[in-house]
Design a protein that fits this description.
Length: 503
Amino acid sequence: MKYGIIDIGSNTMRLVIYEQSKSGRLRERENVKIAARLRNYLTEDGWFTEEGLHVLLDGLLTFQDVTRFHRLHDVKCVATATIRQARNRDDIVRIVAERTDFHIRILSEYEEAYYGFLAVIQSTSFYEGITIDIGGGSTEVTYFYNRELVEYHSFPFGALSLKREFVAGNVPTDEELQTLRAYVEKQFQSLPWLKQRRLPIIAIGGSARNVVQVHQMLQNYPIAGIHQYEMNREHIIRVKKYLRALTFEQLQKVEALSKDRADLIIPAVEVFQTLYETVDATMFILSRKGLRDGIFYEQFGPIIFPSVLDESFFELAQDYEVNTNHVQHVLKLVIQLFEQMRSLSLFPLTGEDLVLLKRATHVFYLGQYVDEEASSQHTFYLLANRTIDGLSHRDRVQLALVASFKNKTLFKQYVQPFHTWFTRAEQKKLRFLGALLKFAYSLNDTKRNIVNRLQLDMQQETIVIHIFCSQSFKAEEYQAEKHKKHVEKMLKRPIQLQFHLEG
């Protein structure tokens, strides 16, 4: 099944087509954007001009060609600030209904804020935070606690309206930027629930997306994906300084920046920095999921998933046809190995390490779906570069390193671009967890779930692992003997395997 939604914003119009994946989640298949800048057609006294209506209809008819090609029916069509604020909005809705396939639903300020908030909590694991969505004509902020919306506000400014009001040319002068900042700061200071909250800010929308992309470009970011990308105040300032040093012509050529946002990006960055300082934020995170996703989350899923991360792993299992029965058995074995090694103080391990190990068990060698021979390489690439809702980029790379473990050489190759992300001790631990997981999987090589339990003993300097089986274990014994060497190297102790057949 395919579903379509048209988002008529103040700066851009978008048609997004979603398709339900094997897991039942909606996945974006088409994303058609038009830089309509409808805000420019809203007069000072609030009338949407004939020229603006022509631009709107022209864009919608373009979308109509696409939706008819895909045979989409009942396409959702929503409009935000510019149409909402137009005094002749009823005429706009009527004319669109008469001349196109679409019926515009004008979102209220609350609905616009709510759907952005809903997208954030459905795609991240934050339980408390501030969200911001800078559009062309309005800016929505919310405060949520325990994953419930507590406060919201819609400011009557966006990146496009700020540029029109405060910036005479294509890029702001120092004086213009100072005046713009003072205005935005006064607006934010008017909300007591924003000030000095010391919470993460989760940003939505094209301006935030472009800020992240520029920052990733500046540091040659080693993996793909922008969802849940984290920045701090210094990172935002670095992006602003870089952009401020460029001419408008140079801004238009920045690869990480949409050309149609070249004149809007600096005012937007100023808004983000001002909000960061008002909130005294702990971090600035991008949510790639926004208003459009929030509307579909409300229609197709529970209002709030019990666990975003659990939902993500379920989706991975469905998409890559993971043998969940096999995974559950290996999970039981790897937990026994982990707990007994920790109790014998064979390696410094924590509860957080066990959480990571459990996650990695669910996606170990997931890349064999693509190619059996290169399953390790594909596993690392897929997990490191795929958006996994609920995991930060650092956590995603950790997961990829453990779940793709094959040997020391490949591990070093994988971790090399991230050597500044992890200390040497952390890298050693990740390698150990990977080796332990690989060994546990060897104990269910035939996927018959024949190993009932494990018992670890120490005999002088030798680790003895007793493996109690319900059926013939020759295949498992061969694989376990082959793969125990990776654990031995990490522990710097010999391991002796003793298989037992029990009734």
